[in-house]
Amino acid sequence: MSVSRKRSYFEKIPGSPEPIVAEVRRRVRFNECDPMAVVWHGRYPLLFEEASELLGRRCGLSYPEFYESGLRGPIVSMHIDYHRSLFLAEEFSVRASLVWAEGARINTEFHVFKEDGTLATSGYTIQLFTDHLSGEPCFSSPEMLEKCRSRWLAGEFV
Question: Options 1.20.810.10, 3.20.20.70, 3.10.129.10, 3.30.565.10; which CATH number does 20-153 get?
Fold first, then answer.
């Protein structure tokens, strides 16, 4: 069976830096599987979140930094493509890539790889910034995101 792999879900903005990447490696747990010992499809957003959390800590977009900035970053869009199954006790990795975007948004792509490097799952999320008290959207990039972008352009995440 041939599986086509989309290179990127988001179009690269000319002149933008390469994505910031973080990767989590681990083994499939019993509680993540269905009765057939296959990772249940609803677990993949949680796997994405594990890598996303590591990515946020790496580049200044962690949960504590959101709280300190008085911001939230709700996901407004999520997409998942299932290519190959993961099975109980199988080792795998989840790669999260923060893709440069203009405006007050976070574009993150995810790739889940089986131990042999085969693509199991891919997907993306889009997050927007909102004020944590009012819930109102931020229409300009918040300072927290601008700090991340400045560091990114300076090559700190290579």
Answer: 3.10.129.10
